[in-house]
Batch of 4 targets.
Target 1
Amino acid sequence: MMMTTTIQVKTRARSDAIDITSMVRDAVKSSGLKDGICVVYVPHTTAGITINEGADPAVMQDILEALDRMVPWHGSYKHMEGNSPAHIKSTLVGASVTIIVQDERLMLGTWQKIFFCEFDGPRTRRAVISCTSTA
Ligand code: ZN
């Protein structure tokens, strides 16, 4: 069994982190998946996805600011479109996460949330959620 659905994510700034955990949880519930894996995939070249602490919003702010320091917006980049830092951050963060689903529940840790990461916003983006049964 495999169920795939696409969600929309509206980002609010050039760099942004949006907690999409509840949307992923809803998608898993709708899929009817009991035991298996949930892949959340971002089909964009200047965005990414990660799992990290959601209890203190300062954590994701710190991560976005650290990425800004590592890959400054202004620099000697070759890509003509002018958004190379966004492409580089997208590759650093990655395009997908995999979460184990057990007994209809995402096996996230107590403090973990799933964050859509924007690096060239604000824009309306997409994330693809695929639920596969392993039972
Ligand atoms: Zn580009």
Note: The helical segments are 21-31, 58-70, 84-93.
Target 2
Amino acid sequence: MSLLETALTYLPGVGPKRAAVLASELGLYTYQDLLLYFPTKYVDRSRTYQIRELRGELPSIQLRGYIRDYKELGEGRKKRLVAYFTDGTGTIELTWFRSLATIRRLYPEGRMFLVFGKPVAFAGGYSITHPELDDAEKEQAVGSGLMPVYPLTEAVRRVGLASRQMRQLLYTLKELLRGQLTEPLPTSLLRSAQLMPYAEALEQIHFPETKELLEAARRRLKFDELLFIQLRLLGMKLERKKTSPGLLLPRVGEHFRSLYASLPFDLTEAQKRVLREIQADVVSGRQMNRLVQGDVGSGKTLVALFAMLLAVDNGHQACLMAPTEILARQHHASLAELLEPLGLEVGLLIGSTRRRERTRLHAALASGELPILVGTHALIEPSVHFHSLALCIIDEQHRFGVVQRSGLWAKNASWYPHILTMSATPIPRTLAMTLYGDLDISVIDELPPGRKPIQTYHVSEGELFRVYRFLEQQIAEGRQAYVVFPMIEEQEQSELRALQEGMMRYRERFPELEVVMVHGKMKPEEKDAQMQRFVSGEAQILLATTVIEVGVNVPNASVMVIEGANRFGLAQLHQLRGRVGRGASQSYCILVTGSKLGEEAQRRLQLMVETNDGFEIAEADMRFRGFGEIDGTRQSGQLLSLRIANPATDGAMVQYTRELAERILEADPELSQPEHAPLRRRLDELFRERPSWSQIS
Ligand code: ADP
Ligand code: MG
């Protein structure tokens, strides 16, 4: 076992208690994990601010001065310690909520300190909460002036590990590992890509000597991160192509043809292209594993349907898995409408399917009598057996992880069904390459002709009366409307109240109309019943929390009002907007917010007003929110957790490392050539199954 894999508990300064917290809070188990735990920012200590020059919004900064006196404020759990810190040009407050006695002892009044932290404007002055203080005399010890700040949680701080102690641990580790780190990249590559050596990059990222060296270190480490992910993803893809035979579905048969002939419109060029890509996959003799991306309404489901007919016409079965019951029902209804005229039965299997129906479905699937099944994850339960499952469509919507996908693969003894994943949220290309790099990717980048672009407006709450009037007009013309309220999990109770308050408001304003309400806390039957009243046209306004995000198709609905729109992510807003614009009439999306908005919120909403292009919005969303938030499922699948690279801003590097990985694996698929040995070793190191450290310590 290499030194890098030593459990952190053995690192001087850690010990069992801290090791346990580092593991559970930050996922750090070994020396290597800590070494690769990079700072998220650096405080520039080369510059010392004066208190009188503090103005506006500030980053973390450094001040130099002394504490004039202390005051304890508040009671019980709200108790806090406030220090009045001055440098002769002004005074600011330093505030602590914990370890009050210790703080007073460590930082006596009158002694000179360097203070680091982010000043927040407060009662006419500034305040820094939980600042870091260093003895001003020992200033020299700090080095370049760039001081790393590590992302830490409260629990980590509680065991005495703040950024400063993390730096200490990393220093100890760096000394321990001196001369022990192998360079994973071939020298030729270091030279051609102009990369800083690995050991040096690790040193500079934690202890930067200059800004330039830090930049070079970051570039090198991003490069490694992306390259090894690409090697891993492409490796998986190659491996699957080698070892996973796929059923051949060569025949384009009767059902496929009659559906094609019966459509009242032509497929778009993009749909045809993707269909050809799928057809090529299913005659290749290998398992298809393809992601189809496209904006809402681009016609993904229709493409998926044709793919299912390929399976059926070749004597096999197909299934479609949706993330929620409502969506499964809707898919089922629309597929049945198109397929039953062709004499094909479509089954529906969801959590609430009755026992008798369930038994019937199980039998019909096992005998092969039932060609197509739609369902939720109920359809991958072990009790479900197919006679001959050739294709599974996954309507992903970000909810199915790799694990559930693999459950499907075990549905046949001798082959893996072809897998087609449909992603309803367009993902920028470089992100898709990183998240789904082990899949083949198709893009439907064209909307069917004749769609009227949805008109989007941003209004403030004070103008709600105008929104009401507009709704009135639309409804008088026979249309229906959605009104969506934000729902955030931690605050379910108050959000629910907001929805109920909204319900009263709309009922009061529209006494002559039917207003229904659905939310995530309702029983499924009740939710469906309410939804059904809207779908049937009996109700004109549907108030909802985001449960409608993934579902419902009501072509007659022409208005989407989103209250508290600034609380939604861009991708989510775009999804919601996609609920309208499905019928012939002009549709509208109205984003309602308070009148005081931050600059970023303002820009995000403006973007929604300006564009209907899901890809453009996805790119922007990734920039605004950063990468981490985009796809939780896939990331937590352990396949990917990016520490330093960001596909949003490092797109060119994603592209470059992807091509490089392709070239390397093409020449040497197993990385068995001597020059690739360090690559191989590093890849194994990075993606090896973890031993269960929790059982050791
Ligand atoms: P997505 O799944 O991408 O949101 P769907 O497949 O559900 O899109 O299609 C949305 C609507 O557009 C459906 O009513 C579908 O019948 C219709 N549609 C699909 N392809 C075309 C096309 N080429 N021309 C016209 N309408 C189409
Ligand atoms: Mg769809």
Note: The chain has 25 helices and 22 strands.
Target 3
Amino acid sequence: MTRSVSILGATGSIGRSTMALMEAAEPGAFRIEALVANRDVATLATQARRFRARFAAVADPDAWPALKEALGGSGIELAAGPEAVVEAASRPADWTMAAIVGAAGLRSTLAALARGGTLALANKESLVCAADLVLETARRAGATLLPVDSEHNAVFQCLAGCDGAGIEKVVLTASGGPFRDWPLERMARVTPEQALKHPTWSMGAKISIDSATMMNKGLEVIEAARLFTLPAGQIEVLVHPQSAVHGMVQYADGSILAQLGSPDMRTPIAHALAWPRRMTAEIPRLDLAALAKLEFFAPDPVRFPALRLAREALLAGGGAPTILNAANEVAVALFLERRIGFLDIAAVVEETLARLPAADPDGLEGILALDAAARAEAARRAETRAALA
Ligand code: NAD
Ligand code: MG
């Protein structure tokens, strides 16, 4: 039976890995309904033609002429702008990959969930900034939400057959990023090029910086708390440089179940794509004998304050996670533009959280307003820090 699939964020790291898996699957297993990108028309057009997509959209209205030029006359329906992204997500499909980066993916994540079906969630920021709304939308529509983030996908697999009782804790592993062993003085001078070079995973720019600051793990603690309905105290983070164990669940009887695999997102994506079955993914297998050892350390709270900030935001609740996420997106973008230093990223987030009231935002409009206010405040905090540097 052919499954219809839509990919939001098709041209990115997760989007391309998803399409590579579909290409290697049995012919006729999948067909593409809709593909979305921000403005990479060349990649989107190649993907749309190759998979005979029915609909292709770009979020950036300026990319519309290029899209028309590339795919006009192909029979593929085309559209541009933020509404086109929501339209792509709203078209009926059995399975949707939410792989847009940042809170920019929120409206399409909600639109896809609202029509039921299965949503594979890579876009953790939409869950962090609007968890109640995302989960309530899924519940109301009877949609299935499958975590793609490798740690959450691992925990999801380790929870198979568990009715929610008897869970002592969940462990999310972190590679520790490129600066795992760097002294703080050296971290202050980190360049975007150094921060983008992740030791074990190949990913998009934003999540690579988040991994280097460990804000990625902070966002993931919030993601795990909301996906698995666990208090912050039952979610542990361990630095695990080999990136072989992705997540674990410790049960009341002392058992610890772990999921292992190569550090390759095609495994969790394949899990979500075939769920509840399994499909073949032609990726290098984990060679445990070659690996020889698996190490685990507690993260350093002094050099990686982002993890603490995320835990505090989770405990504060209300709009705090929305503010944390928005301020972080702004700070990461400014760091990539070399406008602020590496250590300024967490500082900007902390200052923004301290300055904005974190009252619970009301519905989507309230969340979007708080997100915008946090972005403006973070930009001001960053400017002040840049002026002082
Ligand atoms: P990426 O930067 O490689 O790709 C992002 C995709 O989103 C691109 O297709 C881009 O065109 C699209 N996009 C960007 N802004 C958009 C907008 N405003 N509207 C519509 N589309 C837009 O990012 P990625 O590494 O593939 O990450 C995507 C998401 O998956 C992120 O939320 C990230 O945290 C999460 N994730 C990624 C990995 C990974 O290994 N790359 C692992 C776990 C989770
Ligand atoms: Mg992850």
Note: Residues 3-147 form a domain with the Rossmann fold fold (CATH 3.40.50.720).
Target 4
Amino acid sequence: MKKILSLTTVLAICGSFLYAQNAVDLKVQLDNASGKISPHMWGIFFEDINLGADGGIYAELVKNRSFEFDHPMMGWKRLENVPEGTFLIINDSRRKGNARSLKIHKPTDFKTGLQNEGFRGMGVKKGDGYEFSLLYRQASPGIRIKVELLNEQDQVIGTAALPLSQGANWQTGSVTFTSAETSPKGKLNIWFEGAGDVEVDMLSLFPQDTWKNRPKGLRKDMVQILADMEPDFVRFPGGCIVEGRDLATRFQWKKTVGPIEERELIINRWNTEFSHRLTPDYFQTFGLGFYEYFLLSEDIGAEPVPILNCGMACQFNTGEVVPLDELDEYIQDALDLIEFANGDIHTPWGKLRAEMGHPAPFNLKMLGVGNENWGPQYIERLAIFQKILQEKHPEIQIIASSGTDPNGERFDYLDEKLRDMKVDIIDEHYYRPPAWFLSGADRYDDYDRNGPKIFAGEYASHTTRPQGPGRSTWEAALSEAAFLTGLERNGDVVTMASYAPLFGHVDGWQWSPDLIWVDNLNVYGTPSYHVQKLYSLNKGTDIIPVKLGDQNVVGQDSLYASAVYDADTKELIVKFVNYNEQSVEANFQLDTKKKIKGNATKITLANADLNVVNSLEEPLRIKPQTEQVNYKGKAIKDTFPPYSFTVIKIPVQ
Ligand code: AHR
């Protein structure tokens, strides 16, 4: 059979001769900065999707600790056959946000207990301490608790006893113990010993080794991998979760602050969103609530960027809208949130922040109104928010949605309206194939320099290689690296960018690809993680033009480039993507009167196979390789491997 070469193959072969013989000449106009890089350019998009919060970064190991899931005993198993009436679910509507509790009735000392399965098991580590705690009340003494931590083989690997005191009121009990083994899928037994009646609630197990050792805090490794990105901002709490399937299940920040046991749980919208990825046990307990989101942002040196519901439920679901004359409650939520974040401790919401442990303000500067909302119904509601927020809080910048897609009728309509309204920042989202990212490297080159700023609020390249969607391949990441040169070059217009979604749990995801994958004990960054991290860690302060002839480098010969100068470290930082299957020789001619020191740092992400992924087994298959290079004078000549993203840092005097 005759083999016919496609045009692309022919071009590729010709290209390989070209590259073997001729170097590409690029000019770096170091003395001709075209603008400033925003101080909050590279950030994080956080949403409780894929077990990102409950079952993920929120380190609680007990699932359905307060019996408030739709089915009160979901996640729980009775350990022995016991007489009818031993367990009773009480629903006491006087208990704010947490009506249900479990009553254990034991007229005699028979053996009984409960087992909790955790979120896809409980990840526990040998030698680490764990704190079991609960709320309880027992009118007369009689019942004691014994807890046992089990491994996957049901062997006991940790145990503790907890006597319960007598009292008519709810009280807290807790005990700590050590795990004798590491187990990715442990379980917890709670035995009720003795005879009597006791009511229990908030049955909880946390590792003591949390982020910053905060009791009942966040999973340390998951926060650390975020901190390692040195993000400039954290956008929270999403995502569609802001909108809810209907208005009743929208995200209401006020229900996520204050005592944890009073935070009213709701179903997570990703529980039922995808029929092929149903997750019936996915609820939002709000243990990670708005206070904790603010704290997390502060901890990792990032600006908090909350997104609030604008009076509309998800338009892919019910599309419910609140009548315009009932929007007050939503606007009040925004005003109160600003007070919660920034207000004096003598204001009601500032006082709550102080009581929760943070008298100093959180220094909120930006607020999103709506996520992926569209149509005239959005514009009408946004206009009311905008008017009041601008009157009362001109210091807060408003982020407005441009819908679900980066082009098309809905986008064009919103883009025009939002520019007419002079909103501060427009939030653009793109989940697109690699080809879209590659051809879009010049997307922002012609954007209005005087109009609203752009927040690339959710981006991810969705490859179909090799077996269907969802894989966080090197192909996806490299196409993002190419596109991000365009964001960096236009850093005077695009002032914020974040990949989405952030986390995926290997046993509990609904949406893929994701930036970071976890199981109960491990965490790793995808190639896309390393790409964004390299941008974030090498952000710079000033945009430096890079030219091929007199053009920006936006895909000619499948090459992409951008550069920044960092006034703090006094470095020129060049980013270069070679999207060819051959290596490329490039000359970067530095147009500058400044003195260039030759000793540069070169960081490369590369793989000749675009299908390569990182995984739990091989978490660093794609990882940055750093080397020191000595370039001579003002001509930086180097060879860049096939399918590579390179960052070169050159000291400038
Ligand atoms: O990132 C996953 C989802 O994608 C977000 O919740 C939503 O905003 C977008 O459609």
Note: Residues 47, 49, 238-240, 371-372, 404, 458, 500-501, 511 surround alpha-L-arabinofuranose (CB under 6 Å).
